[in-house]
């Protein structure tokens, strides 16, 4: 029967070929002769492997292997250099071999949802043309920093994994428009979230977040999902804090930072002979009240942002966003409702 089917295909020479839901354990050999094909769909079969001969299909741009029995990414895929869309959802894949990823540099869409993957290899950085990456419903505990090098990514889905954090390098994905980190175990998001300047849809529902990173309110989100976290509750108490005495190092650092921001040539000339100090000073922050630079965050507090009023998102509700201040003196004079966080026993 498969033979007849392939024969028919040879006569009509369609670009794409569908062998979905045929209960196949192996790819029929005749398919390998159809070297002009640009798409093959083998969805919902019982395939465990693909023949090495598949490498002759160099026109193939789309391959759907979803709902099969693969336990690894088939090794022959590394030879299919034209492949742009690869669907491997609902298989039993536990391992992603780096050498297979390295051969897939033209891939634009990769769907690995519903597998048993624990580790994303650092070779993920080879997918330099990848725009849409879904790996929902797996067992990923850690995202490698190298994913931040896949700069064309616009959509990522990490829903229902075991992530406890994300690397700050992900903020280098400036084209990202849609991101789901829902149903993981995230306790915190790193600082620097404004790197995601094109993010419009953001889902972090069902994690353990207590506060959002500084400047979160400046993201231009259109949809935001955050239910089911451990957000700091806004039970507010008025208080003022005694002013502190800064250590000498902090005083000196603030003085030099300020001079450098004012473009003092004396300071910049002196600093060029001290690369260690320059590196240390490059990690400075600025106070949310007086905008003066500081080296060490002196007061970390939160501000409650109204999603509707401050961010123009349709959701109702407020979320706590982290704010850094240079001193208690700024905290005391702030009219902007910043709150120091303290733990209260239940
Ligand atoms: Zn200040």
UniProtKB/TrEMBL annotation:
Organism the protein comes from: Silurus meridionalis (Southern catfish)
Pfam families in alphabetical order: LRR_1 (PF00560), LRR_8 (PF13855)
Keyword vocabulary terms for this entry: Leucine-rich repeat, Repeat
Keyword RNA-binding part of the UniProt annotation: no
UniProt xrefs under InterPro entries: Leu-rich_rpt, Leu-rich_rpt_typical-subtyp, LRR-SigEffector_domain, LRR_dom_sf
Signal sequence bounds: none
Domain of life, per lineage: Eukaryota
Name listed for the protein in its UniProt record: Leucine-rich repeat-containing protein 69
